[in-house]
């Protein structure tokens, strides 16, 4: 029984870390006292410990304890025994590489598919898709594989941005890049705007938040879906 929240971002403008989604997380993690935090994607300039402290302060507001996976001698065992898992944002390539280096891909898949509640934000959301090929990040490290956790049957583009019609910049838009992905790949891609998330309960996938999401399917025109849309058939 999968139980996931796949969020575009951890922080929206004018709000604190995870603040916009904390009421939802209180329900999502209601049966967990302690959340295993995976800080591998850490933003530039901070340590795993510092990143974990940020998560700890946020979850303290809903009376949850957070421990970093990097503090365990056996990260596989930490995942297997976790009451809940949170994978934070940062660089998706760094995150994916560390998951492979620590042999965590299969243990995480098994734990989540067996019911361990999961939260992913940004890079932690990107890895829920089939591959990380639709990340916005620079490939600053080279993971052994671009295949991700495949917890949903499509790819994800967190932080999706619409073209700015007032901008004089004539370069690629996010939509252009996703269309380029479909020159060589066939899986659908969901563009998640800031403040939006996917709620996954077993095989049911519902768009949550206040904004629509943009769906890209192979050899089809992109289209919008509104909040509360069931995306379970997107594959």
TrEMBL record:
Keywords: Cytoplasm, Dipeptidase, Hydrolase, Protease, Serine protease. One of its GO terms (biological process) is proteolysis. The gene is pepE. InterPro entries: Class_I_gatase-like (IPR029062), Peptidase_S51 (IPR005320). It comes from the Bacteria. It is an enzyme of class 3 (hydrolase). One of its GO terms (molecular function) is serine-type peptidase activity. CDD domains: GAT1_Peptidase_E (cd03146). It is found in: Cytoplasm. Gene3D superfamilies: 3.40.50.880. The keyword Cell division does not apply. Belongs to the peptidase S51 family. This is dipeptidase E. PANTHER family: ALPHA-ASPARTYL DIPEPTIDASE, PROTEASE S51 ALPHA-ASPARTYL DIPEPTIDASE. The lineage of its organism: Bacteria, Pseudomonadati, Bacteroidota, Flavobacteriia, Flavobacteriales.
